[in-house]
Amino acid sequence: MVELKTDTSIDAMFEAGQVVARALTAAQKAADVGVSLLELDEVAHDVLREAGATSPFLGYRPSFAPTPFPAVLCVSVNDAIVHGIPTRYRLRDGDLVSIDFGAELGGWVGDSALSFVVGTPRRADLRLIETAERALAAGIEAAVVGNRIGDIAHAIGTVCRGAGYGIPDGFGGHGIGRRMHEDPGVPNEGRPGRGMRLRHGMVLAIEPMVIAGGTDDYHAAPDGWTLKTNDGSRAAHAEHTVAITDAGPRILTAR
């Protein structure tokens, strides 16, 4: 069941989304050669505390997970696509880092992600990240009243496939509101004109993921959470929480 949010509720979700935006900005700024992933998690946690918000990630345990998620920030490095658990690993020059973060404030949830390179970037990594961001922008542009979920999926998939990248099968965006994961699902590839029609008040987390090697194959790491590319190639991830409104898409996690 899809819950349509009121304009007042969307405004409240914007407040949660801005906590997410601040945490991601702070974590990216703190990321440097020699900094541990656990330290990035603590930076993000500090933003939550300052805002009086809580984490929808900490303690979250979906059906596929062997254990509850132990942190507030997902940090996926190099060949990790999503769901990376922060560890004592210290960042190295040239690491490609994807960070994903959620916040709950006043009973509403925001969710967003970004990718970046620590230190000296490879040209191929910058192109990968830029493609994920372009795919996100294309998906958001398609998120208008009267379009369908398939239009968002098609816009994302066209950008990703056009760049020659893989798209991890079975993972994509989702509805969001009182809970982090709500209906409907938002695939990262699909046919235009198909799926649920978009209406004013729907709120979606749109999140393309791209695999540099061009294949769609991935596997779960021994921690049971981190998804890694099968071919060892790098991955990038971009995400925003977006409200569908009569005035056009409103990005609630804009940084």
Outline the low-pLDDT stretches.
Answer: none
Helical amount: 25-40%
Report mean pLDDT, rounded to a whole number: 98
What assembly state would you assign to the polypeptide chains in this entry? Answer: single chain
Q: What percentage of amino acids are in beta strands?
A: 15-25%
Query: What composes the largest sheet?
Result: 5 strands, antiparallel
Please compute the radius of gyration using only Cα atoms. 17 Å
* E-strand count: 13
Strand order of the largest sheet: 6-5-7-12-13
- Please, how many helices? 4
Please write the string of helix (H) and strand (E) elements: HHEEEEHHEEEEEEEEE
Shape: globular
The N- to C-terminal Cα distance equals 30 Å
SS-based structural class? alpha+beta
